[in-house]
């Protein structure tokens, strides 16, 4: 029997608006296969120091570009058309947000990015995992805020970024808040992800506004203005606890915290974790979180994702249908994915060059 390439029997399909990843770390797309920690981490900050802060410090503008391009490609293939990104690369700050923006534009997905200012790197380049709230702003924090300002002043879609407050002085938190007010944008900040940052609410309370993105909020005890970004997969992986998002008055959205950008899969995981906490919860709860994210990034409502599944727009169907595959993605009227592959960039080439960049990045990590 002869089968031509044009014959495609993939059954009934359905269409939804674009998905939004409300908290990504595109710089972590090249993390897969990176060297393991030199010792077993004994706490959450220790794990950050041994793993993620080494990755941050090893990045160059080239590796940032390829990491963002791979992350954007994988987002597009999963129907995620809008990414809210939080970036850090203490040895390659200036120009980093432009590299991310350029990579995403080339793939065809939208990005709203920021640089996460932090005082954890002293002016002499040494690492200070424990930062005093009363210490002055470091050079690295100032450069991070300047990168946010440069990006926003150029008219690009962005926010002002802060790392977790336990790595930020009060001076840096205040400066980030003032910069966000000046540009009428929100602050994108990690909040009480682990018990080590339990004081975040008290330190941020007088600054937080409704435009802020409060990422994680697992151990948040105070009431803060802003939208909570729930990252269930990351929280489970890091064993920091469950955020109990349904117990809070804030709007809730979903992020991946850098573990890919398949938001349909993230939503399924969010639902089963929610059910473990509250068996009375229904898929409509998590579907509302996806909808909230689209209102946070309204351009997603204009995008179209065609699924190789008949009822992808039905929360009950989507919650229990694993591996729903994307057939087509249209962003701003332009098709960026068709027949399950990207059109604006060569997927094979992006994966190959990203792998090469990852090898160089991992080699540099050995010296951090």
Estimated helix fraction:
25-40%
Determine the strand fraction and express it as a percent band.
15-25%
Q: What is the overall pLDDT average?
A: 93
CATH homologous superfamily title:
Metal-dependent hydrolases
Order of helices and strands: EEHHEHEEHEHEHEEHEHHEHEEEH
Known CATH architecture: Alpha-Beta Barrel
Supply the key terms:
single chain; 368 residues; alpha/beta; five-stranded antiparallel sheet; disordered N terminus
Task: Describe the overall structure.
This protein is α/β, with parallel strands linked by helices. It has a single domain, classed as TIM Barrel (Alpha-Beta Barrel), CATH 3.20.20.140. The protein contains eleven helices and 14 strands. It has helices spanning 44-58, 61-77, 96-107, 139-153, 170-183, 200-204, 232-237, 263-277, 283-296, 315-319, 347-365; strands at 14-16, 19-24, 80-85, 110-112, 116-117, 160-162, 187-191, 213-216, 227-230, 252-254, 304-307, 326-331, 334-338, 341-342. It has a six-stranded parallel β-sheet with strand order 5-6-7-8-9-10. A five-stranded antiparallel β-sheet has the order 1-11-12-13-14, with helices on one face. Strand 13 (334-338) and strand 14 (341-342) form a beta hairpin. Helix 1 packs across helix 11 (347-365). The radius of gyration is 20 Å and the shape is globular. The protein starts with 13 loop residues before the first strand and ends with a helix. The model is unreliable at 1-9 (pLDDT under 50).
